[in-house]
Amino acid sequence: MLTRAPLSLLYLNVLVIATCGLVYELLAGTLASYVLGDSVTQFSFVIGVYLSAMGVGAWLSRYIHDHLARVFIEIELALALLGGISAPALFLAFPFVDWFAPLLLGMVFVIGVLVGLELPLLMRILQEHLEFSDLVSRVLTFDYIGALLASLLFPILFVPHLGLVRTSLAFGILNGVVGLWSTYLLRPLLSARGLDRLRLRGGIVLVLLSVALLKADQLTLLAEESVLGGSIIHSTQSPFQRIAITRKGKGFQLFLNGHLQFNSTDEYRYHEALVHPAMLGSKPPEKVLILGGGDGLAVRECLRYPSVQSITLVDLDPAMTGLSERFQPLKELNDAAFSDPRVRVVNDDAFVWIGADDTTYDVAIIDFPDPSNYSIGKLYTTRFYRLLRERLKPDALVTIQCTSPVVAPKSYWCILASMQSSGFHIRPFQATVPSFGIWGFALASPQPLGDVPPLDPSITGLRFLTDEAMRAMFELPGDIRQVATEVNRLDNQILVRYYDEEWHEPQ
Length: 507
Known about the structure:
Elements: H1 4-36, H2 40-60, H3 68-93, H4 100-126, H5 132-185, H6 192-214, H7 216-228, E1 231-237, E2 242-248, E3 251-256, E4 259-263, H8 267-281, E5 287-292, H9 297-302, E6 310-314, H10 318-326, H11 328-333, E7 343-346, H12 350-356, E8 361-367, H13 374-377, H14 382-390, E9 392-401, H15 409-421, E10 425-433, E11 437-445, H16 467-473, H17 494-504
Helix pairs in contact: 1-2, 1-3, 1-4, 1-5, 2-4, 3-4, 3-5, 3-6, 3-7, 5-6, 15-17
């Protein structure tokens, strides 16, 4: 018979169980997005598999009739070990198995079944000690409180400060502690021999997970190198994203949340194409706005123009802009762009900042990441482009990166259609960047656009652009034809769905 004190403490178990369960669910969805692509469909599909597996676990609990306390503790320890090692194990397996998606979904399903078994078993253990109405209300209350804690702390504290690997291992340890602690709370329901065995197993699980947590940096490094390729020469977890720089071949590569941002060997092609059509068409550019581009490489190109009096760069993550100043290879690549007194760095959400700014600009360079989720997708909406127009002089020019028009034609033309719907005149163009293939851009202005601007002989240091190359960028080949799309609006971000479908379907 359980005493009143263990009964009260078992509600703490419910709180921890619910928190761990939701964290494993969120980890699985985030991991799928990280290694398989930042995909809304994949995240929601993983969550759906996890929830259905919990239902299977709850259904299976009806077939467990004997030794409920022992089975409950064994499930806790199994969940601690499997949930704890899930993130590092899946990261390490990703480059080496062709069936990674089934492996991930299989592990998610097993974890979900174990989580689904927990509460029904615990409620059956408690049913002899409480009225049914009290039992259900108390258990579900603590269950929902735990879910709330996990949903709040996962994006605010756990992943930004611990990272996926540490979060996985830490919550595995927490589950293991619950299992070991339960051997005390449920001691009256356990045999002496079974109690010793459970405690021994619990101790082994906690030791293994604790050692893995102590080695989390090495595990994270090994996992990222296996996923990203090349050796990691710098990595950090900011509150907004995972930043990793790898060394492979002659150059280095920057990854944000597992997605390649540039390769130092060919980034000049991308940034010259992005910056100079607008800068050359503005006579002369004095005030420049750069949205995104925390690596400083677009700033480097803008600073080639002696007429520039000020550059305002708005990038959400201070860790990224700080890295561009502190990490010597990147600082050399951007020619110490942030040290120029004409450059002002603003670390803010561009969507919020642009609505509060009252400066007008001659040129705007938009270098946001691809619209792979709704948080980024809002920066490609008609609402954002209308706010941008208010910050531009009547004859200002804008260039924007628009993903690949070959791989993702709907995404590309949706961006252009959204800008046109917001009052911009548009001219599409493209450039070949070996690390990315054919990449799409657009030149835009509140006023009708003139001819393709020629190069200015006084602008030195260009490696890719010539007058011929500039004209060729605006001559679209036959496989980049305009396709009909909807407009991307804040309340209906069709662009994110286009992007998800096009980039994650078999090519």
